[in-house]
């Protein structure tokens, strides 16, 4: 199934049913009083999060969603039936925004959350409501109110504790394969990863965290180069970013520090909130070079880096276990601070 993480749809809640004007006409009551019933309320549009759904692909092909209209009132003071509600199911992590105003209507972070997005219209009043001592035979009734309608923008942001960031072929997919049971595609060409991958990293039987691997960024992503910024939204909910740097690129003329700076600049262009998240440098492919210390010092100096830095080999697992323990400790400490 193709991974779809955004969609635009229109939702139409049901209109309320109309009230009616009618009078009792029976054998022994040939000129009875008013008995027109009210119209039923229109159906509402509900949205519910479901952990069994992974993408927004269903909303890519069906654009309009309508709830049922309420039934009209009937004589003998019979009220019209309420229109059936419509329930839309979305993946956990979906944010729903009203497209015209930009207002966030719902943000689903746990399974089973439900929100009313569009309310059905109220039913109209029958003429029974208008009788009085001076108006014994009212002929007025009201129409049902229209239901709410909105154009919605649905955006899926995966729920992960840690996000992997870096150039194509930096080793992000190799790292997630090394530390979790996830098996994303790994190959020796750029943009092997075309959609986000999630992996659960178990430190021990009772402690684990979720890591997200997104397609690599390149310089100029803000202008649409490569895959652009379209997947950076999936890092918005993370508590920590791991910036992977390939210190042994195939092209020896490539400067790892310069590429790392390019990624940082793209991150800043996309979102200052994301740029200000805790971020660690992870130098990958230390098994392919004997100048690890020299390269590490060059990167720290050129980037003026004072934060945490780790050296690993994602392909053989060297340094990965120590990295996962540090990540777990950071996540636990951040939860205590919250």
Automatic annotation (TrEMBL):
<dbReference type="GO" id="GO:0042254">
    <property type="term" value="P:ribosome biogenesis"/>
</dbReference>
<dbReference type="InterPro" id="IPR031167">
    <property type="entry name" value="G_OBG"/>
</dbReference>
<keyword id="KW-0479">Metal-binding</keyword>
<feature type="domain" description="OBG-type G">
    <location>
        <begin position="160"/>
        <end position="332"/>
    </location>
</feature>
<dbReference type="InterPro" id="IPR006073">
    <property type="entry name" value="GTP-bd"/>
</dbReference>
<dbReference type="InterPro" id="IPR045086">
    <property type="entry name" value="OBG_GTPase"/>
</dbReference>
<comment type="subunit">
    <text>Monomer.</text>
</comment>
<feature type="binding site">
    <location>
        <begin position="166"/>
        <end position="173"/>
    </location>
    <ligand>
        <name>GTP</name>
    </ligand>
</feature>
<keyword id="KW-0963">Cytoplasm</keyword>
<dbReference type="InterPro" id="IPR005225">
    <property type="entry name" value="Small_GTP-bd"/>
</dbReference>
<dbReference type="GO" id="GO:0005525">
    <property type="term" value="F:GTP binding"/>
</dbReference>
<dbReference type="Pfam" id="PF01018">
    <property type="entry name" value="GTP1_OBG"/>
</dbReference>
<feature type="binding site">
    <location>
        <begin position="284"/>
        <end position="287"/>
    </location>
    <ligand>
        <name>GTP</name>
    </ligand>
</feature>
<dbReference type="InterPro" id="IPR027417">
    <property type="entry name" value="P-loop_NTPase"/>
</dbReference>
<dbReference type="InterPro" id="IPR006074">
    <property type="entry name" value="GTP1-OBG_CS"/>
</dbReference>
<feature type="binding site">
    <location>
        <begin position="313"/>
        <end position="315"/>
    </location>
    <ligand>
        <name>GTP</name>
    </ligand>
</feature>
<comment type="similarity">
    <text>Belongs to the TRAFAC class OBG-HflX-like GTPase superfamily. OBG GTPase family.</text>
</comment>
<dbReference type="GO" id="GO:0005737">
    <property type="term" value="C:cytoplasm"/>
</dbReference>
<dbReference type="InterPro" id="IPR014100">
    <property type="entry name" value="GTP-bd_Obg/CgtA"/>
</dbReference>
<dbReference type="Pfam" id="PF01926">
    <property type="entry name" value="MMR_HSR1"/>
</dbReference>
<dbReference type="InterPro" id="IPR006169">
    <property type="entry name" value="GTP1_OBG_dom"/>
</dbReference>
<keyword id="KW-0342">GTP-binding</keyword>
<feature type="binding site">
    <location>
        <begin position="213"/>
        <end position="216"/>
    </location>
    <ligand>
        <name>GTP</name>
    </ligand>
</feature>
<dbReference type="GO" id="GO:0043022">
    <property type="term" value="F:ribosome binding"/>
</dbReference>
<dbReference type="GO" id="GO:0000287">
    <property type="term" value="F:magnesium ion binding"/>
</dbReference>
<keyword id="KW-0460">Magnesium</keyword>
<feature type="domain" description="Obg">
    <location>
        <begin position="1"/>
        <end position="159"/>
    </location>
</feature>
<feature type="binding site">
    <location>
        <position position="193"/>
    </location>
    <ligand>
        <name>Mg(2+)</name>
    </ligand>
</feature>
<protein>
    <recommendedName>
        <fullName>GTPase Obg</fullName>
        <ecNumber>3.6.5.-</ecNumber>
    </recommendedName>
</protein>
<keyword id="KW-0547">Nucleotide-binding</keyword>
<dbReference type="GO" id="GO:0003924">
    <property type="term" value="F:GTPase activity"/>
</dbReference>
<keyword id="KW-0378">Hydrolase</keyword>
<feature type="binding site">
    <location>
        <begin position="191"/>
        <end position="195"/>
    </location>
    <ligand>
        <name>GTP</name>
    </ligand>
</feature>
<feature type="binding site">
    <location>
        <position position="173"/>
    </location>
    <ligand>
        <name>Mg(2+)</name>
    </ligand>
</feature>
<comment type="function">
    <text>An essential GTPase which binds GTP, GDP and possibly (p)ppGpp with moderate affinity, with high nucleotide exchange rates and a fairly low GTP hydrolysis rate. Plays a role in control of the cell cycle, stress response, ribosome biogenesis and in those bacteria that undergo differentiation, in morphogenesis control.</text>
</comment>
<dbReference type="InterPro" id="IPR036726">
    <property type="entry name" value="GTP1_OBG_dom_sf"/>
</dbReference>
